Amino acid sequence: MSFSQPQTRLRVAVIGGGMAGLVLTLFLQKHSPDVQVDIYESAQALSEVGAGITMWPRVWEIVEQLGFGEELNEIASGPAGKTPSFTYYKGDQPEMQLAFRRKPLARMFHRSQLQTLFAKHIQNIDQVIHFGKRLSDYVAPASGTGEITLNFRDGTSATCDVVLGSDGIRSAVRHTMYEDMAKAASDEKAATELRQVSVPIWSGNIVYRGLIPVESLAEDMKAEVVTWIRVFLGKNQHIICYPIAQGKFINLANFVFTPEGEGTQYDGPWVSHVSAEAVVEKFGGWDPLIQTLMKGMSDPLAWAVHRLKELPTFSSGRVALLGDAAHAMTPFQASGLGQAIEDGFVLASILAQTNVTASNVAEALKIYDKIRRPFAQNIQRLSDVNGHCQHLRRCGWEDVTAEESSRGGFAQERFDAVSELLASQMKWTQESMMGERDEALRMVKALAA
Ligand SMILES: Cc1cc2nc3c(=O)[nH]c(=O)nc-3n(C[C@H](O)[C@H](O)[C@H](O)COP(=O)(O)OP(=O)(O)OC[C@H]3O[C@@H](n4cnc5c(N)ncnc54)[C@H](O)[C@@H]3O)c2cc1C
User: What are the beta bridge partners of residue 238?
Assistant: First the structure.
């Protein structure tokens, strides 16, 4: 008996093998045997920052469809059936004060465990991922048909029918797309706007991220912290703390917000090494328990948190953006990756439709943009609002100075207002997105072949 390979309908180049690119590829491989996928990744191997990542039920419903939910559950903290309690304290005072509790369903992962699992399930990974291939730009024929050429920094090139840019916040795909759009713009003002809108901006936040090996903690603390999902609120500062890797590590993310920096260009490296002592110094006056935890961080990194402005489009011709390349956001909805996964799922579902070919794929990508952009950009906005909430800059806290805040003794109603706003802002994370996928498919099926 002989099996014939399906004829290739589309050749897709995925630029960037971060988690957005990997999940997109998994869905393409699962649903589109007639789509050839190649990932071009600038690094020599897959790697992720040593930190935690939260996944909400909306995203879990999608990744479960990849068919290895059980394996994912094994590496998750906060598994199915258990409702983790997020406990919020006010931390920027000598003794922390319980503020409120929320119980949204969530799973927490160690990033590199999650990435390794995604990569493990990619078929023929050695042929699919091309390492050491940093895209410099691409050339798409003005006619809208014919091969697109990808040019890499090492002087080599490759061709494809469709380019999907999952190359992160400093995306070369986005740069080329917006430069091409600027060149084709009707006037100089429109061209300048297109060039400016695609440049990332600093959110005003520095996050000091690190993992604490639970083994290194004192016995009495160890037992307590492995059950924690805690958020410590403070004026222009806050901390997120939760266990990952089946309780082997505590993930600590310590944020410091500089209001004047919001929306500016950051002057300095975006990521740098910092000592745990230097981080503790930034949180002087906070509850001593929090300071003790911080001292336990191994090799913390300081990240200048950047975001993108709201792009006028995620697609142009046969090229589309996804993940941080399209909508890098502040991390205060814990949703940048979740939104990237939604992008990948919708894109792969669209490209799986057999009426989508090289001649109408540009129209199909417009449908992706129409469905995904308004939603993802709303989350970008909500995320900024959450940040301001957690930095005690909204909900009646506007006029409280850092000094007043550090004295503590605030009435419960002040915390209730923050709690209510966060709950209403995060409601969507517990809801399904399948209706949006179905809407995209309805539109794609109506496309002329
Ligand atoms: C402190 C913090 C906490 C967060 N917490 C959460 C959370 O709890 N939940 C959540 O959902 N999200 C969270 N996020 C957001 C999340 O980390 C990102 O949105 C997500 O990792 C983006 O994935 P990506 O694949 O789009 O981009 P990236 O992870 O940046 O991957 C881009 C890939 O492209 C490659 N690349 C770059 N340029 C090129 C090029 N020119 N050519 C080829 N390859 C290239 C890179 O090497 C990389 O592999 C958090 C972010 C931060 C900063």
Answer: 233, 255
Q: Pick from 322, 324, 382 the residue to mutate for probing ligand 1's pocket: most ligand atoms within 8 Å of its CB.
A: 324
Say if residue 80's pLDDT is above 80.
Answer: no
Indicate if ligand 1 lies below 6 Å from the C-beta of 347: no
pLDDT computed for residue 225 by the predictor: 81
Give the number of C-alpha atoms closer than 13 A to the C-alpha of residue 85, restricted to the C-beta side. 7
Q: Is the CB of 243 under 6 A from ligand 1?
A: no
CATH class for the region spanning 10-57+110-200+310-387+432-445: alpha beta
User: Which tops the pLDDT comparison, 234 or 82?
Assistant: 234
Give per-residue pLDDT as tens, 106-164.
Answer: 888 999 999 999 999 999 999 999 999 999 999 999 888 899 999 999 999 999 999 99
- What is the reported pTM? 0.95
Domain ranges, ordered by start, for the chain: 10-57+110-200+310-387+432-445, 86-108+202-307+394-426
How would residue 48 be classed by pLDDT, with cut points 50, 70 and 90? confident
Q: What is the C-alpha separation between 343 and 79, in angstroms, rounded?
A: 24
Atom of ligand 1 nearest to the CA of 22: 25
